[in-house]
Amino acid sequence: MILVNTDYVSGKELETLELVKGSTIQSKNFGKDITQAIKSLIGGELKAYNEMMNEARALATKRMVAEAEKLGADGIVNIRYASSSIMQNAAEVIAYGTAVKFK
Q1: Prediction pTM value
Q2: 30: Cβ–Cβ under 8 A, 6 or more apart, which residues?
Q3: Taking Cα atoms as reference points, which of 32, 12, 19, 24 lies closest to residue 84?
């Protein structure tokens, strides 16, 4: 499966299938929330939240790819990511793109 954030794959002619997406909502445990809140007072990278968002992006991508595989896609083009806060200390990450077959 080829994944790109462009609307083409170099050297390939594409047949568009449909929009595919994957999403997840993640939060950290209470202990991590407390340590990150303290860290936010003094500044610096919030590593636990950075890890959480990386894990969320990977899971959302995996779910998007699974949806494309069900369609028999060879790749996904024009991939985008978005995130939003659902509630305090919880974030949604969505990955979406266009599933394609190569001609």
Answers
A1: 0.83
A2: none
A3: 24
